[in-house]
Each structure stands twice: as C-alpha cells, then as structure tokens.
Amino acid sequence: MDHIHQIIRERHSTVTFSTKAVEEEKLTMLLEAARWAPSSYNEQPWRFVVGIKGVGDNYKQLFDCLVEANQYWAKYAPVLILSLAKKNSSLTLKSNKFSQYDTGMAVGNLLAQATSLGLFIHQMGGYNVNKAREVLGVNDEFELMSIMAVGYKGEMDLFPDDLKERESKKRFRKSIDEILI
C-alpha cells in the first residue's frame, strides 16, 4: 500500500470525534475542493447543507434525522453536512443519470481535502430521508445522499469502550481481484 497516495492511505471514518470546532476557513476549503470536482457536462449537480454545532438550526435538524445508532457517536462531531444530488440536468432539462456519481466525485474531493487538513469525515446513510427533506425544506428536485460527520479525531480514552473497540478495528478493503469483473 506504500505506493498509494498518503491522503488515500490516511483517510479514515472515525467514530471518536473531538468536540473541537472546525475552523471556518477549513470548512470553506472542504466546500471549495468539492466545487472543483469533475462532472458530466460541467453540471455540478451537488449541493450541501452544512450544520455547525451551536450555530443556527441546521446541525440540530440534521442530527435529529440520524438513526439512534449514528446519534450515539455522531453527537461528538462539531459539524454535520448533508450532500444532495440535483436529479435533472439544467442543460437538457432531462434526468441526469450521472448526478449521484458526480456528487460522489465532489464528496471524494471533500474527503481528500479534509484528510489533508487533519480532519476526519464519517459518512452515514443511516438517517430518515423523508424527515430530512421535510425539516430542511428540500424539494423533490434533489436526491438526498449521505450525512457526513466532520471534525478532528478525539482522544480515545474519553470514549466508551464500544467506540474505542470500533475505532481500533483494522481497515479492510476487498482485493483488486474481487473488484474486477
């Protein structure tokens, strides 16, 4: 794995976040990295709802949409971000079958930028999509993707044993042979 770029090697989905605030300029850098992702016809169909703990309503609204198992550990993260994909092309006015793929590319850039800044991101699909759509006022023009917990890694000794155990598990990926068809 030594030949893989350091940012890819070091990316990790922690469940042990520090409560330390994420600096505004670093959040801006994450969104800027996402902004520069490639997309089909340069549609840039991704959108984000950013929630900062203690600032406005977005954080609480996003947090309240998470399933209980995710709330258990995500409560430590100082930032939550919901990614969305615009379903239809602004250019053709037809369904954009690449919108979710392109949004994933934007999130990939965001993840790489976060890692380069010493930040950790854990993406979650475990949330109530309908509730999120309703409380955030997101219309049917968008597909709701993942909610991401964002922050610095916390000190392991401050967390319950089950989170320490989960955090210390070895990362696993399928072999190249398993991903080739």
Q: Which assembly state applies to the chains in this document?
A: single chain
Mean pLDDT: 94
Number of H/I helices? 8
How many structural domains are formed by the residues? 1
Shape: globular
The number of strands is 4
CATH class: Alpha Beta
* CATH structural architecture: 3-Layer(aba) Sandwich
Radius of gyration: 17 Å
Order of helices and strands: HHEHHEHEHEHH
DSSP helix fraction: 25-40%
CATH topology: NADH Oxidase
Name the structural class: alpha+beta
The end-to-end span amounts to 22 Å
Strand order of the largest sheet: 1-2-4-3
How would you portray this structure in words?
A four-stranded antiparallel β-sheet has the order 1-2-4-3, sandwiched between helices. The chain contains eight helices and four strands, in the order ααβααβαβαβαα. The two termini are 22 Å apart. It has a single domain, classed as NADH Oxidase (3-Layer(aba) Sandwich). 30% of the residues are buried. By secondary structure, the protein is α+β, with helices and mostly antiparallel strands.
Top keywords for this entry?
single chain; 181 residues; alpha+beta; NADH Oxidase; 4-stranded antiparallel beta sheet; 8 helices; 4 strands
